[in-house]
């Protein structure tokens, strides 16, 4: 039976008005007192909300039926959030742990990829890990093809565990050299759907529009709250609260060093990685105040295990600055004249972790 309230709202247009009102409320986040009060960062803030809306609409409306699933990209080259990794190709999928799924594809050439299932929680901002598999654990056919069954009941072969409360999948395909490698081609199907079609209903429209607006507000709130935490150790890279990172969708195979940077145009942040552990890969990236990775399509804002220049002793020296420090420092990360923002270091697949990524602020003129 059609819910008359949802149907009436669709007929009168109230569903759209409610959606727009929710977005207007979310827009107040950009004007909060802790946000840098300059036109540049205000513009970035409103753009961030618009990009979050694009992702929210895909998640809550366009790809929201778990019985007709498909992969979409909540974060990509032009919509970003929560210090998204420039070395990752992210994919997301809405599922329901009460169903079974088959994931198929071909390996590609990326160094490593993982698929994690995430469950619902009483706190909408918290994700619960319900299963995990990565390319190091999988078997592939000689031509690079693969099949994974995602289900609550254990299966032979490549199996991704689900729980009855599982509601989403997160795929991370991690490049060594983004321009030279080919991503894995991944597809998904529900093996036991009960819904005869994928038609939109008034209820689904209302749920999707309000869910998308809620996503904008929730991620916006989380961004500002996290940045206030990271401002407590500006220009330092201590080990982050790993549990908090994973509650927000982080990968348990990754150790995070999340922080905040703030530099004048004549300053540089010098990072010396002299205790890099054995790991699948590592990286360090820059983001803007809204925790969106800087524009990695055109500029070097990230360095990793495969792209870094190493010193004779195996250490890595990284300079974060608005201007090129010169040929003695090939691992230059360009701030693009942002004065402040987020930053994040990662060790993937390591067994031991340094307490920090060592850093200090110097004048650019001191770098000889």
List the helices and strands and how they pair.
Blueprint: H1 4-12, H2 14-27, H3 39-62, E1 88-94, E2 101-106, E3 112-119, E4 128-134, E5 145-151, E6 159-161, E7 166-174, E8 185-190, H4 202-230, E9 237-238, H5 242-247, E10 254-262, E11 267-273, E12 281-286, E13 302-304, E14 316-321, E15 332-334, E16 340-348, E17 356-363
Helix pairs in contact: 1-4, 2-4, 3-4
List keywords for this structure.
five-stranded mixed β-sheet, Jelly Rolls, four-stranded antiparallel β-sheet, globular, 368 residues, 17 strands, alpha+beta, 5 helices, 2 domains
Kindly describe this structure.
- It is a single chain.
- The protein has helices at 4-12, 14-27, 39-62, 202-230, 242-247; strands spanning 88-94, 101-106, 112-119, 128-134, 145-151, 159-161, 166-174, 185-190, 237-238, 254-262, 267-273, 281-286, 302-304, 316-321, 332-334, 340-348, 356-363.
- The longest helix has 29 residues, at 202-230.
- The strands form four sheets. The chain has a five-stranded mixed β-sheet with strand order 9-17-11-14-15, with no helix packed on it.
- With 368 residues, the protein is an alpha+beta fold.
- The protein contains five helices and 17 strands.
- The chain folds into two domains: 34-220, Sandwich (Jelly Rolls); 223-366, Jelly Rolls.
